[in-house]
Amino acid sequence: MVNFEKQSPYRYEDLVEILRILRAPGGCPWDRAQTHLSNRRNFLEEAYEAAEAFDRDDPDAMCEELGDMLMQVLFNIHIEEDAGRFTTDDVTDHICRKLIFRHPHVFGHATAETSEQVLDNWDRLKREEKGQRTTADAMDSVARALPALWRADKLQGKAEKAGFRFRDSGGSLDKLDEEVRELHEAISRGTNVAEELGDVLFAAVNAGRYCGVDPESALNAACEKFIRRFRCVEQAAARQGCELAQLSPDELAALWGAAKEQE
Length: 263
What we know:
By secondary structure, this protein is mainly alpha-helical. The protein has helices at residues 12-23, 29-33, 36-56, 59-83, 88-101, 104-107, 115-130, 135-140, 148-161, 169-189, 193-210, 215-239, 249-262. Among the domains are: 12-88, Helix Hairpins; 166-213; 219-262, no CATH class. It is built from 13 helices and no strands. The model has no long low-confidence stretch (mean pLDDT 92).
């Protein structure tokens, strides 16, 4: 048993020490066994739980979930400290240098009066920092671990800044229609269905950009709507004394239509 002094409240230094104890000999076997890859899903789940707290504007949940995120960041840094590859100070130094370099309007002599100018400078400096000579280089650096809809949105944004775009929203919708037709053809042939479905989703993201719609938020809203309507259908079927699997497609369509009308 580790005799850890109780504090009220605990502080940042206490968290660092707790993690050191957990991963030290005689600490927690599970914590000592973790690697970045084994902990990857936990890291992402904590990030999404923090994002959900932001969406709900729930300060209690934010406090808890940001604590979990802070723990995850320090935990992964500690893995590297144990391996002797870098330290917390190295991480801190790196982000401080990056923030100073990418904010020349604050720490240097550049000028940026609007958020748009700040973002333009940020992108330019990021490309300079990472040695990205072309827009394709910048696209290739977009994290492949991002949700695919967000990744598509970021890639299209970089292409647009380089001058690659449709004239208007109508052009993006025409492209979406074209990709849907090609998906129909692929399904009929039984070939390249996954590729054509990907093209449809990519084109749908592009259409959303012209409407100022975040694709991830839009799809999440559609998921919530589907749950609400499905609940109504399920309840209606239960009132009829049957399960959904017992209903015909026409009966299901009728219940779904009634659920839509209730909204």
